[in-house]
Please model this.
Amino acid sequence: MCGACTVIVDGEMVSSCIQLAVLTDGSTVRTVEGLADGSRLDAVQRAFIDNNGLQCGACTPGQIMAARSLLDHQPNPTEADVVEWMTGNLCRCTGYAQILRSVLAAAQDETA
Model:
């Protein structure tokens, strides 16, 4: 469980690789592709671009969805909150500093 397949099901963060599809019948499922509003990116997507929160891209969808879930639950997280929340999402490029910066920037952008 690396977190790369993280989605949001009925407002809760879920690893889709271990979620039976039948359990999502009738649920609202949000994926990274559904975050943007047309050509307008979600604040988390924009922050990841602006703060170099993506490197090889393998973990990026899961990182973005975990960050979106965090901000949905806690709009103004501390650095420690972000680190704790994102623990289940692994980055093989070790881009954690940029990911942390991206999540905090998105939070700041949304509360501004």
Q: What stands out?
A: The chain has four helices and three strands.
